[in-house]
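[Solved] Which block belongs to which protein?

Original post:
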Amino acid sequence: MTFYTREYAQERWEHVLRYHAELAGLLDDLLDTLRKGQRTQDPLDPRKYKYHCRCDALPLDYKTIVVVVKFSTHIQAESGFAPNNFVITAWGVYLHRER
């Protein structure tokens, strides 16, 4: 069991929708971004990563979902260290790639 609950996950999703409405209805795509997306490590915080993955279902000119995740652990009395990984936020972007 992780420290963050389903209620916390729901709160994070509501945060994403409040500030990044372009992701409304795209929870499955956001989860696919976490499963299959490219991952880059934050240069200032080695426990923070950005995942990004193309998503053609995004509105406007957005073509990519970006999800920020923080990896950590916490101590559980009965079992020692346990994962405590959580989504910080997510948003849609247009990523232009040079050829």
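(Second protein starts here: sequence line, then its structure tokens.)
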Amino acid sequence: MFPGAYRTDENLWNKLLSGKIINPKSNISLISNKNLIISGEKDATIKITQLKKYCKKFGIELHPIKNCGHLNIKNVITQPKIYKLIFDFINN
């Protein structure tokens, strides 16, 4: 996606590919009792169907965003409605 942007050795790439870095499934014990996930329904990287199952299993609050993919989520979270959602979640 960003050729040449990430430079590291092969061992770290293999670890990253294994899913043991930044993978909630591998870090279940780190999940607290208060979590919010905002995800685009059209996200091809993190499928919404898998995310819904994951959130249901662990009691995580999920807010899918219609007509939004993986890379354009940053444009969505600045919208007043979503900002309020995040603000309310943090303060409650």
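Accepted answer:
You had them paired correctly. Confirming on the second one: The chain has a mean pLDDT of 76.
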